[in-house]
Specification:
mainly alpha; single chain
C-alpha cells in the first residue's frame, strides 16, 4: 500500500495521547499501575507460549495436509463434487469446503495454509479469495467447542447433543451471512480498482489439469508435506501481533478481579464487558435467550479466545446461570466468533488484503450475531 504524507505534528497526535493515557489511567486506577503492567506482560507472554505456538502448530499441520491434498488431486476432486452445493450458499468454489473442514477440526489460521497453496488459490476469483478469512473463522475450533459442550451434559445432568447440533446449524447460518456480506464489499472494492473478475460459467471454475512435483510418489508426498509445513510456520509468525495485542485487550476488559484481589497475574482484568452485558440484558434475552447477564461474557471472551470462553462454561453451570439453550447459543457464537478479533487482522494481512480488514470484521460481527439468534430460534422451534 502507498503511504500518504501528513504534517509531522497534528491534532491526532494529541488525541492519540489523550485516549491512550485516559484508558491506561482508568485501568491502572482499578488494578494498580504495577499490577496492570504485570498483567499485560504476563497475559501477552502466556498467549505467545500457549496460544500462538499452538496456532502455529495447527497452521503447520494444516499447511502440510493441504499441500499433500493438492499434490494428489484431492482439492480438484472436492471442487468438482461440491461446487453445486457450496456456490449457491456462499458464492465460493467447491474447494472452499476444504477450508470448512480444516478449520472445524483445528483453528482459524488453518485456512492460511490452504490460501498459500497456489493449486487451491486458482479456483478463486479475487473478490472470492478475500472471503476465505470469514469462511474459515466461522468454523474455527468447531470440533473442539462442540465436543467440549457435549461433555458438559454430565455436569448439567442433561443430554446436550441436540443443543450442540443446533449450535452448529446456527454457525452455518452465520457463516453464510458473513461470507456473502464480505463478498459484497469485496466486489465493490475490486470494482472501484477496476480489477473485478466478472462471473463466468461453471466450467471456468473447474480446471482440467494441475501441476505436480517430479519424482516418485513417496518423494512427491514428502516434498509436498514439508513445503506445506514451512508455509504454516510463516503463517504462524504472521498472526503473532494480532493475537497478542487484541486478545490481551479483550481479556483485560472481560475478566474480573480474582477473589484474593489483584496480584498482577496473567488474565486478570477489570470486568467491564460483563457489566455492559448486564445493562443490555433486556436486548440480549429476546435475541439470544440468555437467562442471566453473566452469559454475555462467553461470546465477548470468544472474540479474543474461544478456548478461554469455553473455560467459563463449567462455572456458569455450577452457578445455575445457563442451561441447554445457552449451550446451543454458546456453541454457535463460539464457533462463529472463535477468536476472530485476535486473528482476523493478521489473517487478512497474510492474504495481502489489509485494507479490507474493517469490512471483514464488520461482516463477521453481523454473522456471529445472526448465528446466535439463529441458534436461539432453532432451539425454541425444535427443543422448546
Amino acid at each position: 500500500m502507498n503511504k500518504l504524507k501528513k504534517k509531522a505534528i497534528s491534532l491526532e497526535a494529541f488525541v492519540c495521547l489523550g485516549v491512550l493515557g485516559g484508558v491506561c489511567t482508568a485501568i491502572a486506577k482499578i488494578m494498580g499501575p504495577v499490577n496492570m503492567i504485570n498483567t499485560v506482560m504476563g497475559t501477552a507472554h502466556d498467549l505467545l507460549i500457549n496460544t500462538v505456538f499452538f496456532i502455529m502448530g495447527v497452521a503447520v499441520l494444516a499447511g502440510a495436509l493441504s499441500s499433500v491434498l493438492s499434490e494428489f488431486g484431492v482439492i480438484a476432486l472436492i471442487n468438482k463434487i461440491l461446487y453445486f452445493v457450496i456456490y449457491p450458499l456462499y458464492r465460493l468454489p467447491g474447494a472452499s469446503a476444504l477450508a470448512v473442514v480444516t478449520t472445524y477440526i483445528s483453528d482459524n489460521p488453518a485456512v492460511l495454509g490452504l490460501a498459500a497453496n497456489k493449486e487451491f488459490k486458482k479456483y478463486f476469483k479475487n473478490y472470492q479469495f478475500t472471503a476465505l478469512t470469514n469462511l474459515g473463522t466461522s468454523f474455527g475450533m468447531g470440533f473442539i467447542v462442540s465436543a467440549f459442550m457435549v461433555a458438559q451434559g454430565g455436569l448439567l445432568k442433561e443430554n446436550l447433543f441436540k443443543a450442540v447440533l443446533i449450535g452448529n446449524l446456527g454457525a452455518i447460518i452465520g457463516s453464510i451471512v458473513s461470507v456473502n456480506l464480505m463478498i459484497h464489499y469485496s466486489k465493490k472494492y475490486f470494482k472501484e480498482l477496476g480489477e473485478l473478475e466478472e462471473e463466468t460459467k461453471v466450467e471456468k471454475f473447474v480446471f482440467d489439469t494441475r501441476e505436480i512435483r517430479s519424482g516418485s510418489v513417496f518423494g512427491r508426498f514428502l516434498e509436498a508435506m514439508l513445503e506445506g509445513g514451512k508455509i504454516g510456520v510463516d503463517m504462524g509468525i504472521a498472526i503473532i501481533p494480532g493475537v497478542i495485542i487484541i486478545c490481551t485487550t479483550v481479556l483485560i476488559l472481560t475478566n474480573g478481579m480474582p477473589e484474593g484481589g489483584y496480584t498482577g497475574a496473567a488474565y486478570e482484568g477489570i470486568g467491564v464487558l460483563p457489566i455492559i452485558g448486564a445493562k443490555l440484558n433486556f436486548i440480549l434475552k429476546p435475541l439470544f435467550g440468555f437467562s442471566s447477564p453473566e452469559a454475555i461474557a462467553f461470546p465477548i471472551t470468544a472474540l479474543g479466545a474461544v478456548g478461554a470462553a469455553i473455560g467459563l462454561v463449567p462455572q456458569f453451570i455450577k452457578e445455575g446461570v445457563i442451561g441447554a439453550r445457552e449451550i446451543a447459543v454458546f456453541t454457535s457464537m463460539g464457533m462463529c466468533w472463535s477468536g476472530y478479533l485476535s486473528t482476523h487482522v493478521a489473517m487478512m494481512d497474510s492474504l495481502n488484503y489489509r485494507e479490507l480488514t474493517g469490512k471483514a470484521i464488520f461482516s463477521h460481527t453481523i454473522g456471529g450475531l445472526i448465528a446466535g439468534m439463529s441458534a436461539n430460534f432453532l432451539f425454541s422451534l425444535f427443543l422448546g
